[in-house]
Amino acid sequence: MITVLRINHRPYRDKRITTHVALTARALGADAIVVDTEDGELKDAVNSVTHNFGGGFSIETGKNPIKFLKSFSGIKVHLTMYGIPVDECVQEIREKSLNRDVVVVVGASKVPFEFYEQSDYNVSISSQPISEVSALAIFLDRYFQGSELSREFGGRMRVVPTARGKMVKIIPDERECLNILHRAGADERIISHCEAVEALAVKMAELAHADLDLVRAGALLHDIGRTRTNGIEHALQGAKILTEVGNIDERVILIVERHTGAGIPADEAEKLGLGLKDFIPVTLEEKIVAHADNLYSGTTRTPLAEVVGRYRKKGLEKAAERILNLHRELSAICGVDIDSIL
Which of 125, 211, 218, 247 is in Cβ range 3.0-4.6 Å of 135 for a Cys bridge? Predict the structure, then answer.
């Protein structure tokens, strides 16, 4: 774990630059930042970014910095223009921290000499005056050897690289999902069913340690296609509606597209007029939403045996078997029989 210790923060003057220190720390691989001065606005700003863009980054303010450093049992690195050049010591720091935490001290104004004495490494990014944001960025990049740039954060907002312009894909929150449903023309029957499915899906996701934001959005939107048709193609139509919205994360769209039963394999899909395409749920989140939907008829919870019996009565033996297998798989992952989740 890497923690950045920000010292000499002055809220009236340094809020913007300390925010940049925190965001740089988060984006380039650090796990947390500790700031010496209490600053609620700073915490709110950083926590908002983490909420939207993901990751487990944390911020704590109002901590005595020298007490924190003295009590820290890992590797202590202080970034200063007077230290050892980073390229001469970063490999040693990396090796020594394989099984130990690291704290990186970043100052604002003049740093008391005690921080030099308490640090295991006083590291210089440049012997010239340099921004603390730049110094931290270069150190973390050297430490992680560039691997931090490909890190996945899994947030509800995701920037999609484009040669020109800007594109951000979102996992819509509850309010946004309901707005999308209303704009598509969903009636109370559809919305009530989606909310019932969402409640069960979220409980399953919590037990399975799945992505809650993704499951919540996928469950709330899974039947949006029923605003166009109640046929077997409603899942495909739902995916088209969300694609037309333009900024919905592809993972949500796939949950909607693959939620029918326990999925439809390509050969069956072609016979049903859906094209030669596989609609089997792949990710844990896709499987959770599909099965939560299986266990609800409208807003009425339906036991697995009744669901399977209904499929078999229609002669859909393969589909019934897929649902049975999905139930067993998710029950094993959740650690309880899904039928027992209230």
Answer: 125
